[in-house]
Amino acid sequence: MLDKYISLVKNFYNEEHRCFHDWGHIEYGLDVFNNLGKGSLEQKIAWLFHDIIYDPTKKDNEYKSSLLAVNMINNEGDHLNVNTNIVSIIINDTKNHQPTHPESALVLDIDMSSLAINDYQLFFESRIKAAKEYAEFGKEAVIAGTKSFISETLHHPRIFTTDDFLPMEEIARRNLNQYLQEFEKSNEFREIFTSKTKNKFKL
For labeling, which of 1, 25, 121, 122 is most exposed (least CB within 10 Å)? Predict the structure, then answer.
């Protein structure tokens, strides 16, 4: 069943405006599920859909993604085999990255695990991709948004809530603290806002 939904959602993640939240992000999460050898069908389907609607100018992406997921599941006739309520809760929990249901915790940790890449240069490159998606807001707004995200993330007693990801906690905090100190001074960050590399947001 999962392969069917992979086929249904894949093209959404190839939209031009995506730099970080693209199909590579989804494939990464599927690989993590496989490597862990765990994950319910609801968790995996929620992962496939959690960024399917992605407009950086909007604040209801998760809500719209959850609606699309439920509609697709119903249209495919799988509502008797998939708990759409759990799928919807998991997707909506990715907005604030605080689990309100036990099934959400693993998905949220997978979503945040890119913060714990144990190679700072690779981590740095992934964060630059994420920042590029917001370039249309202007440099100062992206700086403020990046600092806010990092500060809020570091403020949580634990970034990761499942035992599988607890060993990543220290790496993620180290990466975030280092990035906070240097991202806005880096050539890579400044180049986001040049006319040559600026990401034009289009739907």
Answer: 121
pLDDT at 194: 75
Quote the pLDDT of residue 54.
97
- What sign does the CA torsion over 64, 10, 114, 201 have? negative
Q: What pLDDT was estimated at residue 197?
A: 45
Alpha-carbon distances, residue 79 vs 74, 87, 163, 165 (angstroms): 5, 11, 31, 31
How much is the pLDDT for 193?
A: 83
CB 121 within 8 A of CB 179: no
pTM: 0.92
Q: Which tens digits make up the pLDDT trace of 7-19?
A: 999 999 999 999 9
- Structural domain harbouring 105: 2-114
